[in-house]
């Protein structure tokens, strides 16, 4: 099963973004969406697939943290 993970856009450059996932910075393809710096995006397989509201992204990040703690 594959999941999508929310991250915060730090920089934008020609169809790519540097996205922060809890301190890990990853280059992400933004060809499907038009995020702005500071917004959150939902990322699947290296591609941003949705621009998210901060509250929704925060809720998902908290759920992933809870799941990690269960292991």
UniProtKB/TrEMBL annotation:
- InterPro entries xrefs: Hydgase_assmbl_chp_CS, Hydrogenase_HupF/HypC
* Organism domain of life: Bacteria
Gene Ontology terms for molecular function = carbon dioxide binding; iron ion binding
Q: Which Gene3D superfamilies match?
A: 2.30.30.140
Specify one Pfam family.
Answer: HupF_HypC
**GO terms classed as biological process:** protein maturation
Family to which the UniProt record says this protein belongs: Belongs to the HupF/HypC family.
Q: Which NCBIfam families match?
A: hypC_hupF
Protein name, entry field: HypC/HybG/HupF family hydrogenase formation chaperone
Q: Which organism is it from?
A: Candidatus Allocopromorpha excrementipullorum
